[in-house]
Amino acid sequence: MNPQASIPPVLLRLHQGTVAWLHSWWRLLLFSVLMLSIALTPSGYRSERRQVLARHIVSDTAPNLAWYGVLSALVSLVLIRIVVVTSQSYGLSRFALEMVVRVLVLELIPLTAAAFVALRTTLPAGLEFSQSRSRDDVIDEEVLHREFFPRVAAGIFAVWMLAAVSCVLALILAYLSLYGFTPWALGGYTRVVGQVFNPAVTLILVMKIVFVSFAVGLIPMASSFYFGANYRDKVRHSLSDMVRLFAVILLIEVASLMGNYY
């Protein structure tokens, strides 16, 4: 007698789904450890491998930096104006700058930078790379160094660069929107910004950017690593990649909010 025959179908599907879910996260962990070992190996930075790595970093960062910089500036100006007008209407003008920094720089910019890189670079690149591989391709050490690791590192670096440039741009736009083109308010401005960016908040912001960048760089390529030759499996798992990626980003954001405000 088949032991599964006595198990209700709902419980059986739940068990199979749970096992598949845990298996997918375990494979992601193994792939992350593999990429980390390559990143810490000196042989991974030989001359020919450095050229491949540099080419991927430039191609994944430069186009995104231009587009995201423009979009980030426009959205930042709109949000800054909304916060300033709202604070003035409630007589809270002295808190306008702090609200702008906390809402825009600490929360929105890291999330939008990660989502922008994921949707424009890492998720499409993971799907395209998996489709270009044939069923007979063997993943050896050279393939890991020349194909997988440069794409993962480029996605991580792109998030870092976009977040850093956008944060600096948002701070400049906040100063110009509140005080105009005058240097006399710089002392009060830096004092308020410094009060917001205390050591704990700065550490949480850096850790959030680092962790979301790891998620953006690793999750799509991990799926390509395990489902590269099977196009049907890759298409089926591409949606789960997106869901898993944004679920991880959401969990990181919740953790950062708890660290900042609790």
Summarize the structure.
The protein is mainly alpha-helical and 262 residues long. The chain has helices at 9-39, 47-89, 96-132, 141-179, 186-196, 199-227, 231-261.
Question: Mind explaining what this structure looks like?
Answer:
The chain has 262 residues and is mainly alpha-helical. 84% of the residues lie in helices and 0% in strands. The chain has 7 helices and no strands. It has helices at residues 9-39, 47-89, 96-132, 141-179, 186-196, 199-227, 231-261. Helix 3 packs antiparallel against helix 7 (231-261). It is globular and about 65 Å long. The relative contact order is 0.13.
Structural topology:
Elements: H1 9-39, H2 47-89, H3 96-132, H4 141-179, H5 186-196, H6 199-227, H7 231-261
Protein name: ABC transporter permease
Pfam families: MlaE
InterPro entries: Permease_MalE
Shape: globular
Low-confidence spans: pLDDT under 50, at least 5 residues?
none
* Total domain count: 1
Radius of gyration: 22 Å
Share of helical residues: over 70%
Instruction: Work out the number of β strands.
Output: 0
Distance, first to last CA: 55 Å
InterPro entries: Permease_MalE (IPR030802)
Keywords: Membrane, Transmembrane, Transmembrane helix
Protein name: ABC transporter permease
Transmembrane segments: 25-45, 65-84, 104-127, 148-176, 196-221, 242-261
Name the descriptors.
globular, 7 helices, 262 residues, mainly alpha, Permease_MalE, transmembrane
